[in-house]
Amino acid sequence: MSKDLRLNDEIRVREVRLVGEEGEQLGIMAVRDALNLAVEKSLDLVEIAPTAKPPVCKLMDYGKYKYEQAKKDKEARKKQKSMEIKEVKLRPNIEDHDFETKARSAQRFLSEGDKVKVTIMFRGREVTHPELGKTLCLRLAEFCKAESSIEREPKLEGRNMIMILASIKHD
Fold it and tell me: Where in the numbering of this chain does the Translation initiation factor 3 N-terminal domain appear (predicted)?
């Protein structure tokens, strides 16, 4: 159902198809009569299908309905995990130990379900040897192959080479 439902006096049509609070059909009636019935039962008249001919309205406690919807939305948000892109920055002439430290960080990010953006930063004339950066990217992908797959191949963008690794979830 839409967030901007019209209710009670906001409904501007001559007649509506009325649905009771338990979902039972009460038939087609004038809006005035439907409003009187809603007031009698101390409920709200809510337009749930404005495009139907005639529009469909339901008798319900609108405050309670909004509260229930908010609760459902909050529960749905709680269940979904937001995935982030974490970044690992390397240099083409990195030492083995430093590489392994960065690679373990990437592995940890991937095991937590995040994506990893691998950036090789070239300085000065290093950019004339992009194959070194590509080799380094593929070496990192090989190191993390149990947790990830390459989502985007290594590509030179200006003075940086970028590759994206996506996590493979083992549920």
Answer: 8-76
Taking residue 159's Cβ as centre, other Cβ atoms within 10 Å add up to 12
| H-helix or E-strand spanning residue 20 | none
pLDDT in tens, 50-98: 888 888 888 988 888 889 889 998 888 887 777 788 999 999 999 999 9
Phi, psi of 57 (to 5 degrees): -125, 150
Residue 23: CATH number of its domain:
3.10.20.80
pTM, rounded to two decimals: 0.54
With DSSP H G I counted as helix, E B as strand and the rest as coil, what are the percentages for the chain, rounded to 5? 40, 30, 30
Question: Number of structural domains, the chain?
Answer: 2
For residue 62, being part of any structural domain is answered with yes
User: Cis (ω within 30 of 0) for the bond into 54?
Assistant: yes
- Cα 25 to Cα 30, 54, 104, 148: the distances in Å are 15, 14, 63, 54
